[in-house]
Amino acid sequence: MTLQAIDPSALLVKPYELLKHQTLVLTSGSFAEGHFNSMVIGWGFLGSLWNRPCAVVPVRPTRYTYELIARFPDFTLCAFPEAYQDDVLYLGTHSGRDEDKLSRTRLTPQASEVVSAPCFAEAELVMECKIIYWADLDPSRFLDDSIERNYPQQDYHRMIYGEMLAVRGVPRFVGL
Hints:
Blueprint: E1 4-5, H1 15-22, E2 24-30, E3 35-41, E4 45-49, E5 52-59, H2 64-71, E6 74-79, H3 85-93, E7 109-110, E8 119-120, E9 125-136, E10 158-169
Antiparallel strand pairs: 1-10, 2-3, 2-6, 4-5, 5-10, 6-9, 7-8, 9-10
């Protein structure tokens, strides 16, 4: 798919819609080394922090991607057209620790333009991010007791803050 460069300040998305309904595929690792993993995220934030365009993504310590995102300096976020919903669902319901799950999809990893983590040829939106900060959620700071229900295994997310170094997408993601 041909994507055009998008200045992060001109990225046109509905963040809740993108994360909750379309979902994003987070990939960490190294394409050049052939050592990477992808997972689906339905939670996160897109915006500005420290005067930089940022994506904040939660990763549980029980996920295979957690090991990679702790070792590698960057990650990508990719959104896909509806035609790839089953492929994205597969990535979200199987572990890369247990199998080569990408081989069970129609998705084609490829080198990113700026970061070491791969993106995908079929993506309609790609955000390449450099990790600039992380913080582990502390359950003692939950002000709403119902939040704890998201953690029956007490596997509290690590929040990964990534500065968007490059963004590419189809025309519907390009604002003014």
